[in-house]
Amino acid sequence: MLIRKIFAAAVASLSLVVVFASPSIGASDNDSNLITPTSVTPTTPLLSARRFPGVLQSTSADPELSASIDQFLNKVVGSTCVIVELDGRTVYERRSSETFVPASTMKLATAMAALDILGADSKFSTRFVAEKQPKNGVIDGDLYVIGGGDPLLATSGYKTVFDDPDQFYEDFTKIADALNEAGIRSITGDLIGDDSRYDDVRWVSTWPARYQVGGTVAPLSALLVNDGNTGYTDTPNEATTNRKAGDSPLLFVQTLRTVLNSKGIAVGGVATTGQAPADAEEISTFDSVPMSEVLTEMLKNSDNTTAELVLKEIGLQAKGQGTTAAGIEATKESLKRQGFSIDDLVMLDGSGLDTGNRMSCELSLALVEAVSQKPEFSDALPLGGKNGTLRKRMLATPSTGKVRAKTGTLNGVNALAGFADTPRGNTLSFAFIHNGTDPRTTGVADGFTDRLMATPKGPKITLLEPLPVK
C-alpha cells in the first residue's frame, strides 16, 4: 500500500512538472514570458520523497497514532468523541460530528460571541448616583450604587479561598477609591444597591440544586462581590469559613459600607437595595478591566460566574434584555455569523454547567482554534501542570508544559480542547469530550494527551519539503 501511494504521488508530481515546464501549444517562439524546459533546474528529483511529504508522513505516522489512541479509548468506560488535526489535516477522529455534554468547553462559545458583540476593549461600569450633587464632599441623602455586571470584584479575605493563588481578581477597595477621588467625604442617607441592569434570576432553572452550595457559581447579579458569598461584610479582608450563597446586591452594599467607613467616608444610613431614580445625577464611576482580560480569566480559571454574567451582558447589548435566554440567542447568532456550524449545538447557559448542553468535537475544535488566533486570548488557555485549571493536572507526565487547552469537568464529563506541542516539533490541535463514569475522572483526558505526545514518529514535515529550485 505504501509503495502504491508513493508511486501515485510521484506520478502526480511528474505530471505537474511536465505541464509547467512545457511551452504552450501554438505560442510564438519570440514570447519571452513563456517558461521553457530549460527555464528552471529542479534540485529535488522527480521521484524524491520530498515531492509528497504529506503522503509519506501520514502513511508512516497516522496509523501509529490512531492505534495508540484506539488502544487507550477502547479501555475507557463511557462514550467519547475525538478529533485531532495537524496543519489542517485530520489525523484521527472518532464520533467527531456527534454531540456530547461539553461541560466548560462551552465557555469557548461564550468567549467568541463576547469578543464579537461586546468588543475586547469594553468594560463593566459600576456607577454611583444621587438625587443631587454633593456639596463640600457631602452627599445629603442616599447614594445609589448601580451594578454594571462586573464579575471579578473581590476582597482580600475572599482571595484566600481561590484554588489558584495567582487567579486574577479586581480589588474591591478600588470602588471606594473612586468615591474618594470624586471628593466624597460623607453620605447622610442610605447606601442603596441597584442591580436592575440584568434580570433577578439568580440560578439557571435547569441547574441541579447542588450548584447553589459549594461555590460552583454565584447567585447571579449585576452587583456582585466575593461571588455573592456571606461572611465578608464586616471583615472583608479576613478569611472566613462562614461562607454561603447570599443576597448578592445586599452583600455588595453592606461590604462597601464597611470599606467606605474604613477609608474615612462616613455612611450615616443603612445598606439596602432598591432602584435608582431615573433622573439621578452621576457622582462617580468605577470601570472594570477590559473585556479581553475578563474573558481570559474566564477561560483560564473556567470561571462559571464570569461566563454567566458575560452571557447576560451579551443579551443586553444584542437583544436589549439582560437575561440568559437573550444571551444564548445572541451568542448563537454571533457564532453563525462568524462561520461556525452550530446546527447541532444545544446551549442552555454560558458556562457549560448545564448537563443538557450538547456540542460536537468538530465545533469544539473549530472554537478553540478560533480562540487561539485572537491576540486578545494569547494567554487564555491553561498550560498543563503550570497554571489555570490545568495547574494541578498533567504533573510529571509527557504533557507537562506541552498542552494548552480549555478544560471541561462535570460529574461524568471530562473534556479538553486545545493544542499539544509534541517532542518532535509538531503542534497538534485537538478536541476530546468524554461522557461516562470512568473511575480515572480527569485522567481520561490527560491520558489521551499523553498519547499525542508520542507522535509523530514519521519524518518531520520540514525535512520533507521540496528543495528550492535553481
From TrEMBL:
InterPro entries: Beta-lactam/transpept-like, Peptidase_S13. GO terms for biological process: peptidoglycan metabolic process; proteolysis. Keywords: Hydrolase. One of its GO terms (molecular function) is serine-type carboxypeptidase activity. Signal peptide: none annotated. PANTHER family: D-ALANYL-D-ALANINE CARBOXYPEPTIDASE (PTHR30023), PENICILLIN-SENSITIVE CARBOXYPEPTIDASE A (PTHR30023:SF0). This is Unannotated protein. The lineage of its organism: unclassified sequences, metagenomes, ecological metagenomes.
